[in-house]
Amino acid sequence: MPVVVEIPPGEPSDLTVRVVGVPATENHDDGRTFLQDGFGGLEALVQMESLGATELAVLYDFFDDNDIIGDFILTPRETPVTAIELSSQLKNFTVKRELTSILSRFDSKQLALRTFGTVSLLRKVAAKYNRIKRKLAEDDGTASVIALQDEVLRLKRDQQFQSSYWIEKVAKVQRERNAAVAQMRSDIVLLMEERERDISSLRNQARVSGRHPGPSLDDGEIDLLESEDKAEDKAEKDEDYNPHQDQDDGVDDEDEIPDDSSDDGVLNVAQRTTKRRRLSQSSAGVSTPKKIKTKSPVKTKIKVRSSGKSKPGSGSSKKPRPKSGGSRRRNASTATILAVKGPQHLDAEECRVIESPGLGITSWMYFGVRMKPGDPTAHAPFQTQGFPDFVPNRHDLDILKERCDGEELKAFLATRPWTKLSGTRRREFFFHRRADLGHEVVRALEDWVDFMEENVGALWHATHWVVLDRDSTSKFIRKTSVRRLKLHESVRKKVIAREKQLKKVAPASVWNEPGLWKFPKRICYWVLMSRSHIKPGTNANYSLKEQVELLDAREPARLQWGAYSSDEERIAHLPEDVRRKLIPSGQRDYLDD
What we know:
Layout: E1 4-7, E2 17-23, E3 35-38, E4 41-49, H1 53-59, H2 83-91, H3 93-103, H4 111-136, H5 140-208, H6 219-235, E5 251-256, H7 264-284, E6 301-306, H8 326-333, H9 337-341, E7 364-366, E8 369-373, E9 390-392, H10 397-403, H11 406-414, H12 419-423, H13 434-437, H14 439-454, H15 456-463, H16 475-505, H17 544-554, H18 567-570, H19 576-579
Antiparallel strand pairs: 1-2, 2-4, 3-4, 5-6, 7-8, 8-9
């Protein structure tokens, strides 16, 4: 254990001086400091003083009458601690807490030496204060001024302490909220990814059922089947049409996608897919029905062209009629001018536009990417009230994938942007009284709030869904895509279960409360800006932080309407009859006491 040696006083005094061992440093290897083996390594012997009665009496002037000076000043032990006692104290949890508190604010380097030196410093301060006090005793007026100045200084220190305390307290609460919100939003992301997979799987099953019992189709095959159905619809009008005839019947299929795509690769893949499907059906003895009537959000057109030759034995000499322009005109009537123009033909200025779809519009532009209304599913037949409800056109997904840079996204997510969500949540009832709801309902609402705070990361991702490329060269993007999907799916299922429990005890009107975060039934896409989208008057692009700030200001539902400065703005999306029930600000009950 460290050395502790008490030095006998040279003259009568209440001052006690001891020699103690402290961990040696390079500064102690000067040839003048005595070094020896000690507790855990080499120790340097230094002098430690204690405060005598004279110094303590002087220091009492710095404290209030009710303060005990021993609570603020280190006082040495009467007798040195034994090795057994020291070992026991080092394992004591209370001692560990005390050391943790010190080390959380002070560096551990030379901690022992600085602690022992504090007493010596106090002795010098007390001596100087005593000398000044004696000099000022002759002038009572000056002493009064000094006393008042000391009181002012004390009050300032107290005010500063109180301010610092509450600032730290508020910051701590915000950090805890932000951490919970971040976790929640992270979980939402996984749910949305699974939702997309479920949608794709259901579409495959719906469109493949009745055609053949083979494996499910990918998006390219689905597009082709839809296009083939449209071609068969026109051909069925010919009385000699045979839906089972071979592909080489003199009719060429030319893929014409004026609104969604003009990639020749899609055509080649589609033609090969159809041929493989029909060959597999023939070999399996499966007959092909005339058509499967399904609706698709992507409108792909097939133009049937005749070569003037009929296949021998087909029994048909008629040519398929040319496709009318009615379908094209219908597409144009439900799309904006920029959407009809297509992303490939937009200039830099047009890529900065965010179009607002009017009544009957099903295709519009958002930063150079075509959007359409969200697709209803079994899990989400409609979007949660107030949240954005649009999805990118599937043919434009590659555009969004290219806009996401892995390193930039990694740096942005490292800032934990979801913490802003926790800091803006309202903690009071806008439309209800705790007493009217009852203890059981309030307890259920508090559990919901706690759950959402714990999963705030998933919630943020659900309202800021960035399209990621699962085949990206960026390892971070690939891992984030998978983790986000798992997290989202996990939270989505928990949300559904908790909503069912909450509905059993709480009225539906509680969902009008701004303090109750809503988990959107459908993900809200975050459309990143293109590289040609630069800040006005500069040549610099918008950072992800700047983009998300603009997005949240433009669409406040993404932050649960918490970023608004007034209560009226926070509830503006609610029906008018609900808004009339707003409780005045000073009369509201806290949501989570």
